């Protein structure tokens, strides 16, 4: 009898978790949109010439990478969108659907043309 009761409780708990709303599908969709925006930015950019340091096989510094990224048009919006996606994932993990949806809306706005 106790075993049946514990199985019933487990079944009820798992069913209630399945009914909880999740932002995961929307997060995945917005992630694909951000990825597409990154691809579009990369395709539209002619790219930079290699610096003298790069030709001498020196590794790029964080400052030189940041400077190159700033020259990429639209990159700031992508960075904002990626930050908002991170917030959406945290909110989704915490079960906060409203915060997740707000973060996703901000991510979409950040990559809007």
Automatic annotation (TrEMBL):
Key words of the record: Signal
Q: Which residues form the signal peptide?
A: 1-20
**Designated name of the protein:** UrcA family protein
Question: What species does this protein belong to?
Answer: Methylovirgula ligni
């Amino acid at each position: 009898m106790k075993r049946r009761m514990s199985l019933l409780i487990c079944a009820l708990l798992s069913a209630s978790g399945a009914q909880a709303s999740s932002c995961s599908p929307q997060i995945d969709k917005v992630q694909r949109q951000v990825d597409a925006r990154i691809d579009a930015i990369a395709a539209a950019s002619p790219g930079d010439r290699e610096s003298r340091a790069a030709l001498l096989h020196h590794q790029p510094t964080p400052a030189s990478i940041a400077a190159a990224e700033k020259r990429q048009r639209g990159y700031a919006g992508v960075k904002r969108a990626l930050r908002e996606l991170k917030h959406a994932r945290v909110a989704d993990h915490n079960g906060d659907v409203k915060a997740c949806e707000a973060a996703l809306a901000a991510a979409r706005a950040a990559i809007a043309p």
